[in-house]
Design brief:
Length: about 240
């Protein structure tokens, strides 16, 4: 899904929530506008106001221009509802005058309200994707931890601070700091997540090491079984030849 589509969907959710906070009831979303069996358009929602009036709701991620006013009015007329637009304001005086003339009600939202919410959603999505990718990397490709730092990494996992890690392990802050530095070099979580991110990266790295060891053991066991099978088949073959 492109950024523009995500931004519009975020604006739509914000608009619907705002309407509900003002006492509107969202009855239907993405209502088709049909004339004699032919679809000619769509409104973002049908809503009932606190006084019982029905509105055809249009949501604009940006500002409302003349074309948007005409579209909102035409769709509402066909559906037999009142026109309502939720947007960031008017694009110009012409759009405002036309909306007043046609009776198109407009709920204006401050730019910061929608922009911040949309940008926040993008940031959260991006951060979540990065965190998931980093976590998978730590599990599937854990960093090589020098034997001298392994105990420090174990102490960091689940700790609340460097002092907590040192206290729990009996190690010095120097060892804890070296282990934390290693994790920050290898992990985005550790670099950007504060000490909590360092502790989480340590836990994931240790889990990755255990997973790698387990997979190695399984591989060795499979190889031994294969060797034993070959040996067994070979001995049976020799037995038949001797017989």
């Amino acid at each position: 899904m492109g950024r523009g589509k995500r931004r519009w969907l975020a604006s739509e959710r914000i608009a619907f929530r705002l309407l509900e906070e003002r006492g509107y009831e969202i009855l239907e979303t993405h209502r088709k506008v049909v004339i004699d069996g032919v679809e000619v358009g769509e409104v973002d929602a049908v809503a009932r106001s606190p006084d019982g009036s029905l509105y055809a709701v249009e949501v604009k991620a940006g500002r409302l221009d003349v074309h948007g006013v005409r579209q909102a009015y035409a769709n509402a007329v066909v559906l037999g509802y009142k026109p309502l637009v939720v947007c960031k304001g008017f694009a110009d005086d012409a759009a405002q005058k036309l909306a007043e003339k046609l009776g198109v009600e407009v709920i204006e939202l401050e730019d910061v309200f929608l922009v911040d919410a949309e940008e926040l959603e993008d940031i959260v999505r991006g951060a979540a994707a990065e965190a998931m990718a980093d976590a998978l990397t730590l599990l599937l490709e854990p960093p090589r931890i020098p034997p001298g730092l392994l105990d420090a990494v174990k102490a960091i996992a689940g700790s609340s601070s460097p002092l907590d890690a040192a206290k729990r392990s009996g190690l010095g802050l120097r060892e804890i700091s070296e282990a934390a530095k290693l994790l920050k070099e290898r992990s985005l979580l550790a670099r950007k997540g504060g000490w909590r991110g360092v502790a989480l990266a340590a836990s994931l790295a240790l889990a990755g090491l255990r997973l790698t060891a387990l997979l190695g053991s399984l591989r060795d066991a499979a190889e031994r079984l294969a060797e034993e099978r070959e040996a067994l088949l070979g001995s049976r073959g020799r037995g038949r030849e001797e017989g």
